[in-house]
Structure formats: C-alpha cells, structure tokens
C-alpha cells in the first residue's frame, strides 16, 4: 500500500475527511458512535513546515514516537495550538522530558503479529477483552480505559473491534521513508 504525500492544506483536509468518513463507517458497522473514536494523527518524520499545514487543516493533537523529535517540534511550533502525545516505547531517562511538554503517553504493547488482518483483528479483540476485564477488576487503575489500537493499515478493523483512539500517520501525512523497524525493536511489534 502506498500513501500519497500531503503537501498543501487542501491535501490534509482531504486526507483527514477520508479517514474520518472511514472511521464513521467502521463505527456504524459495529453499532458504535463515531464520536467514541479519537483520531490521533502521527507526525513522526514529517518536517515542521508540513506539520504546520496539518494544524491549519485542523489537527490539534499530534502523536510522535521519539522524545527528541517531539520536543523539537513542540518548541518550534510553540505558536500553534497543539497537544503532543508520545506513543511507543519510553526510555526511563526520557520520562521527565516527556512530562515537561506532552499531554499524554501511550505505551506500546510488544506482541509480534503479522499485518495479516485476521491475526491483527484477533489481537484487537483480545485487547478489548483485557480492557473490559480490567474495568471489572481494577476500575481505579484503568480509569477511562481508552483502547488505542489501529494504524494506517488497519484502523478500520480496530474501530470495528472497539478502538477509542486510532493512531494514523501515513494515511494523513503520506508514505514514510523510514521502515517501521526503526521505531519498534525487532523483538516487538505493535497492535
Ligand atoms: C508510526 C506509528 C503509528 C502510525 O503508523 P502509520 O503507519 O503511519 O499509520 C502508530 N503508532 C505508533 C506507536 C507509531 O510509532
């Protein structure tokens, strides 16, 4: 699958509208309200000038995977209304940096799964079951119990399986040059 690169505000507006309508359709198939699903555009590797266009097109929450890159963007785009989420593995020595500017941290599961859709869907289902169980047994610990699952290749399935947050990068911004293995240690994967 290739993802066209957004280079203008109009491109971003179109990509975002497309993702939102796909999220809405997936939610409807599952008997859910589209408003239950938060879209978190992931801007990693995208330079600041293009991130600005995305913000103009209405992205006010952005996800980043690397603390240094996120801190740099937070600084250089401080004039914009954006909250930053750090998604992925967090090194202990970076936790303080993240707390200084990010509004949210989403840890990454480390289950290796093929992007084979059926297996991915099973994992989504399992996560939802675990979340529901934790709500019963540890309601204080789990809080609102958001389920962040689904990326560009599988967010529609994730919404059908109960995701409350989808983290979508390439579908909004365009194809990334860096392989996913750069972001996830080879022994782990994501759901
Ligand atoms: C990059 C990344 C995403 C988004 O992936 P896309 O393929 O660009 O949609 C989602 N979650 C995490 C943790 C990521 O690092």
From TrEMBL:
Cofactor: pyridoxal 5'-phosphate
InterPro entries named among the record's database cross-references: PLP-binding_barrel, PyrdxlP_homeostasis
GO molecular function, one term: pyridoxal phosphate binding
Cell membrane in keyword set: no
Highest taxon of the lineage: Bacteria
SUPFAM superfamilies per record: PLP-binding barrel
Modification sites for N6-(pyridoxal phosphate)lysine: 44
Keyword annotations from UniProtKB, A to Z: Pyridoxal phosphate
Name the record gives this protein: YggS family pyridoxal phosphate-dependent enzyme
Organism: Ornithinimicrobium avium
